[in-house]
């Protein structure tokens, strides 16, 4: 039987010029097959090399047809086909074979008989059988052809057991092995290697449950509502599962330590076991865990990268923060977050998610998009996240804001909607997308015509106005909010971000252009200056109310860039280059400098912004005086 099976594979070996009737040991090493020996492990027995790879190439359900037209030869080949499959099944279980489609086998005997579909797969396109044209539309192999020609990838179970996205060009999307990966590679896991990594980094810490809980509360109160990086309910539930020994994609030690790092920045006396700088201590621990988690990243890894990105920005480590943002963007496609989970064509059967997980994944996608667009604007660099997606709009989360400090909690008026903290990220995602368009079109460095710039500014101005008018009443602020009016901190921050978008939109038009001055329908520099000044003034008004109720030490780090943008406008209007000085510009500039000074107690990047504004103001004033003296 084995000899017949060996002869059945003979036609497939003719390209290597090997005679099937010769013993394997007597084959010439000068044949075409000889160079391939270097690719295989020499520890594998030589006699098994050829049979193994041929069997692998042929697979079950792939009969070999003799080149001879003689009926007897065809009959022999068909008999050998059965023998070959029987021989192969003894050494290679069909349910674990690489060509397995995941369909359970009815019985061992049924596996020996080639089905109609299996035989069809081996017939050349255009061949006819029982009146059916193989390979044409509607034929038995239409499903296979459709899969091969598809341009859409799918989530697959990867080597680490987690679903990962592979596009159509990877070729890895074609083989779906159900809940089992195609291969299993060694990768580190936090559960096994965490203590070793922390000890080697000299970052051991016994822990302090009460202190950690307080820092987590600070994180959720002051940092998280702006972008909704971590869903609080999902986090606490996943933490319980992790404590019970269950694996969950929404909790990790890396994420927890990143959250502790940001929470520590908002002020809390650390226990004696913590070094002098608890922010950096927890950040270093998070980075040690991150190095392990990147072998098998999860949703919690993406969240940790977003939080660490903000931490690095606060510490004026722009390059590392930008890189962490980029890593989060890359993991979006790795985890398939850009896919619509309700589209079963792109989601494997074993990767389907319930409604809660679907919502968390969609919100995380938009959080990364928001971070990318705002980071791009803050650094003046091209946006990284330009991939096409089919994700639904972000959704509100059930979250009730709590005032958390080291002092006595403030009592908020009953009319303040505490649940609005779970909605802000939805409107911020839309605003951030507009900021991204402003950066791409007006600040990309690619020359645009005056007409194109003017047309875009007018269009975007209408979109921004519509965005502001569509805000819920609990998120709207008047142009000059009253001192007595109180809103949640995140509502103030959202409106501050809007005013910065207006400044970025009109700032390129501050320069006089002869083509614009003689066309009445164009936006002139005076109009641009007035819009910039109005937006910068509104920022100062909002900051005054924000500071009165909450102080600015715990404002989101993104507000540093917002305040810096307003301060630049006021410094410019005070320099003398803008013609007539706007009334109140000096006072507004002072307000911005004071705000940056207060935020500098928490964020080092605020100190840098303060220094830059002061230096620019002095340089601009000197330059203006020099120009004035030359004119005299």
SSE layout and pairing:
Elements: H1 2-8, H2 46-58, H3 71-91, H4 108-112, H5 116-121, E1 128-129, E2 132-133, H6 142-149, E3 154-157, E4 163-166, H7 190-200, H8 209-227, H9 232-243, H10 253-265, H11 278-293, H12 299-314, H13 318-334, H14 355-379, H15 424-442, H16 450-469, H17 489-506, H18 514-517, H19 525-549, H20 559-575, H21 585-599, H22 604-631
Antiparallel strand pairs: 1-2, 3-4
Structural write-up:
The protein is built from 22 helices and four strands. The protein is an all-alpha fold. The longest helix has 28 residues, at 604-631. It starts with a helix and ends with a helix. The strands form two sheets. It has a two-stranded antiparallel ribbon.
Give the overall form.
globular
- What's the arrangement of strands in the largest beta sheet? 1-2
Low-pLDDT segments:
1-48, 61-136
Number of H/I helices: 22
Mean pLDDT: 77
- Spatial gap, N to C terminus: 109 Å
Structural descriptors:
single chain; about 625 residues; mainly alpha; 4 strands; disordered N terminus
């Amino acid at each position: 039987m084995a000899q017949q099976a060996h002869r059945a594979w003979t036609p497939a070996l003719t390209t290597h010029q090997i005679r099937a009737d010769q013993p394997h040991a007597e084959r010439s090493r000068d044949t075409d097959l000889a160079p391939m020996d270097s690719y295989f492990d020499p520890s594998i027995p030589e006699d098994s090399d050829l049979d193994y790879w041929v069997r692998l190439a042929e697979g079950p359900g792939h009969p070999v047809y003799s080149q001879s037209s003689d009926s007897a030869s065809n009959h022999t080949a068909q008999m050998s086909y059965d023998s070959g499959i029987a021989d192969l099944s003894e050494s290679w279980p069909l349910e674990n074979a690489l060509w397995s489609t995941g369909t359970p086998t009815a019985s061992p005997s049924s596996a020996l008989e080639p089905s109609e579909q299996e035989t069809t797969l081996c017939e050349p396109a255009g061949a006819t059988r029982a009146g059916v044209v193989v390979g044409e539309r509607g034929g038995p192999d239409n499903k296979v052809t459709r899969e091969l020609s598809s341009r859409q990838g799918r989530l697959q179970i990867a080597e680490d057991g987690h679903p990962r996205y592979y596009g159509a060009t990877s070729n890895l999307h074609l083989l779906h092995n159900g809940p089992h990966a195609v291969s299993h590679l060694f990768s580190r896991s936090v559960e096994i290697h965490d203590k070793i990594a922390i000890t080697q980094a000299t970052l051991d810490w016994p822990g302090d449950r009460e202190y950690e809980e307080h820092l987590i509360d600070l994180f959720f109160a002051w940092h998280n509502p702006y972008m909704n990086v971590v869903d609080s309910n999902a986090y606490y539930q996943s933490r319980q599962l992790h404590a019970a020994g269950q694996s969950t994609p929404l909790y990790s030690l890396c994420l927890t330590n990143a959250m502790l790092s940001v929470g520590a920045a908002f002020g809390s006396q650390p226990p004696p076991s913590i070094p002098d700088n608890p922010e950096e201590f927890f950040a270093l621990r998070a980075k040690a865990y991150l190095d392990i988690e990147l072998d098998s990243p999860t949703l919690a890894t993406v969240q940790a990268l977003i939080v660490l990105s903000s931490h690095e920005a606060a510490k004026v480590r722009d390059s590392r923060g930008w890189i962490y943002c980029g890593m989060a963007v890359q993991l979006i496609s790795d985890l398939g977050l850009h896919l619509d989970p309700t589209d079963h064509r792109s989601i494997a059967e074993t990767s389907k998610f319930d409604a809660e997980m679907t919502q968390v994944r969609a919100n995380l996608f938009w959080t990364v998009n928001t971070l990318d667009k705002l980071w791009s604007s803050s650094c003046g660099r091209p946006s990284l996240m330009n991939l096409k997606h089919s994700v639904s709009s972000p959704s509100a989360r059930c979250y009730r804001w709590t005032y958390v400090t080291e002092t006595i909690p403030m009592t908020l008026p009953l009319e303040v909607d505490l649940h609005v903290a779970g909605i802000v990220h939805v409107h911020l995602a839309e605003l951030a997308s507009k900021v991204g368009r402003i950066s791409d079109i007006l600040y990309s460095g690619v020359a645009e015509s005056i007409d194109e710039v003017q047309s875009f500014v007018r269009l975007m101005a209408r979109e921004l106005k519509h965005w502001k008018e569509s805000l819920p009443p609990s998120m709207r602020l008047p142009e000059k909010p009253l001192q007595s009016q109180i809103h949640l901190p995140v509502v103030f921050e959202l409106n501050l971000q809007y005013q910065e978008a207006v400044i970025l939109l009109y700032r390129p038009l501050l320069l006089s252009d002869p083509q614009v001055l003689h066309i009445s329908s164009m936006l002139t520099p005076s109009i641009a200056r007035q819009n910039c000044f109005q937006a910068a003034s509104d920022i100062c008004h909002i900051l005054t109310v924000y500071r009165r109720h909450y102080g600015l030490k715990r404002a989101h780090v993104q507000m540093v860039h917002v305040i810096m943008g307003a301060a630049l406008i006021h410094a410019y209007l005070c320099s003398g280059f803008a013609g007539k000085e706007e009334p109140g510009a000096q006072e507004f500039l002072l307000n911005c400098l004071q705000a940056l000074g207060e935020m500098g107690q928490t964020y080092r990047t605020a100190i840098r912004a303060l220094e830059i504004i002061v230096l620019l103001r002095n340089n601009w004033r000197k330059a203006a005086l020099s120009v004035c003296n030359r004119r005299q």
